[in-house]
Amino acid sequence: MYTVAADRISKLARAGLASRLRTGKRGIEKESLRICRDGAIAQTAHPAAWGSALTHPYITTDYSEALTEFITPPFDRTEEVTRFLHEIHQFTHQTLTNEELLWCTSMPCALKDDKTLPIAQYGTSNIGRMKHVYRVGLDYRYGRRMQAIAGVHFNYSLPLDFWPGYRQVLGSEATIREFMDAHYFGLIRNFRRLGWLVPLLFGNSPVVCSSFLGGRTSRLKSFDSCSHYLPHATSLRMSDIGYKNKNQAALQVSYENLEAYITSLGHATATPYPEYEVIGLYDGQERIQLNTNALQLENEFYSYMRPKRTIRPGERPIPALRERGVEYVEMRALDIDSFSPTGVSEEHLLFLEAFLIFCLIAESPCITAAEQWAIEYNELTVALRGREPDLLLIKTGTKIPLADWARDILNGLAPICEILDEGTASPRYTTALHHQLTMISSPQELPSARVLRELANSGQNFFEYTLERASAHERYFRERPLRSGLREYFSGLAATSIAEQRALEANDQLDFDGFLQQYFAEPSLASGASGAA
Asked: Could you give the 3-state DSSP secondary structure of residue 460?
């Protein structure tokens, strides 16, 4: 894998194409729970000053009315992404009521019960009702606790002018679209093999409020009277305590190529699942699921990474991918960085960009059944025990030290970082890489270890510690005025989004059942806001 990547980088450099790696598109989707001053989950509606969660391009909600999601546009430079995300945080903090603030970790604050997490509302339009019913279905299928977990998604694509030259370097006779699709899926397969590195290096959730567990504490240790943890955990969010779930364990979604992915994921969205058939579609007159299939929609499938294509109004992800191919990848393995006010470190994003390029360029054979088992073992092991001394992972059927494998991967990133740094004022990518190499040698400095150390030193429980940090982040944003014109810009977007939602509600021509029938039968014909999830 590493030899092939180094050889391809050399060929790109000799062909004068390496510089094109620098202008890929990057974007962020970052979630945060909106909470009250006492730390309870906010029960209020999505703030009107932020606009419509259905139609606003940058400020929306995920599962819950209280689970805010910030979305940046795609940018050519990482500093543009982080600046825009910072500005969204400034605007939202400065327009949020003084009684509320944003939780600053992935794992939720205190949960009395599932019903304290209000399901997101999107108005009375058909597309808005569909988004709400989908979330009601998730409640019936998995419960609300898992849906309260927040994360960061990193979206990335190579520039379009990179692909013709790369195809020529590799001597491929495939069409550009076929070539791009094949190599994006190669990237995804390699990320599945090596993605355990992300929670290892950036995991920020080794501890959780005991209320989140609902009494399921047998595998965890008591940190204090209100918190549970695992001493060497990196990311409980990415473990079976968080996003891993038994209901989806049997889904056989293939990453061999685009057609196999579409076929297998499409099968899951079209095949009834007995447990969900028992739940049914209605509770009295209330619709509680979109359907009783293994997945209501494609986005219900939880994975470390997804192939993505920007969808048109009313279009489903699978037809969009089938018609126009992979546009970018969505990396979903990143915890919220509680030490950063925005929840995202620019240095981490620089490293991740180089890592994704490595995954694209490295050799990427299809994943066998045995390797699939090893991938799942490695993912869960690192999430639960990643900082354990002398920890072993499975690579090509053999157990090897995690630290040795991690160093090999990071050393493979070095020539990529050098190319990305060429012609810049400072070697930011190389610096980010060296920082992570230091972390491999000093696991006690990893973010997950730092969280536990600061908790122990503070004498606070997880809830108290995180609430104090959330308040500090709030002060940080309230004390920094928005640059000229930005408040008006975001306020204008909010007003426009509210008007767009009202127009959707006024222009629906079908009843809800008819809309759903059309959406699933002819996805390109259903009208409404982009996307259903």
From this structure: coil
pLDDT digits (tens, 9 = 90+) for 447-495: 999 999 999 999 999 999 999 999 999 999 999 999 999 999 999 999 9
pTM of the model: 0.95
- Per the listing, tokens 């620098």 go with 22
Residues 111-134: b if buried by 16+ CB within 10 A, e if exposed? beeeebbbbbbbbebbbbbbbbbb
pLDDT per position as a tens digit, 354-379: 999 999 999 999 999 999 999 999 99
Contact 426, 417 (CB under 8 A): no
Query: What domains can you pick out in the chain, each with its CATH number?
Result: 2-521 (3.30.590.20)
Helix (H) or strand (E) holding 393: strand 392-395
- In which order are the strands placed within the sheet that holds 221-224? 207-209, 227-229, 221-224
The per-residue DSSP string of 58-94 comes to SEEESSBTTEEEEEPPPBSSHHHHHHHHHHHHHHHHH
Which distant-in-sequence residues (6+ apart) come within 8 Å of 464 by Cβ?
458
List CB contacts of 384: < 8 A, sequence separation 6 or more: 230, 232, 233, 236, 239
Task: State the pLDDT at residue 219.
Answer: 85
For the chain, give the mean pLDDT.
94
Per-residue burial over 366-387, b if 16 or more Cβ lie within 10 Å, else e, is: ebeeebeebbeebbebbbbbbb
Structure tokens belonging to residue 116: 């304290």
Which residues, 6 or more positions from 278, have their beta carbon under 8 angstroms from its beta carbon? none
Instruction: Give a three-class secondary structure readout of 315-334.
Output: CCHHHHHHHHCCCEEEEEEE
At 22, the amino acid letter reads R
CB atoms under 10 Å from CB of 506, counted, come to 9
- Average pLDDT value for residue range 510-529: 74
Please enumerate, as own/partner, the contacts of 370-375 that have beta carbons within 8 Å and a separation of 24 or more.
Answer: 370/397, 371/193, 375/192, 375/193
Residues in the chain: 533
Greatest Cα-to-Cα distance within the chain, rounded to the nearest angstrom: 67
Counting Cα atoms < 13 Å in the Cβ hemisphere of 221 gives 10
The gap from C-alpha 505 to its chain's centroid, in whole angstroms, comes to: 30
Q: Which amino acid is at 38?
A: D
> Is residue 227 within a helix (H) or strand (E), and if so which, with residue range?
strand 227-229
Q: What is the pairing mode between strands 392-395 and 227-229? A: unpaired
CA 392 to chain centre: 27
State the Cα–Cα distance between residues 43 and 66, nearest whole angstrom.
7
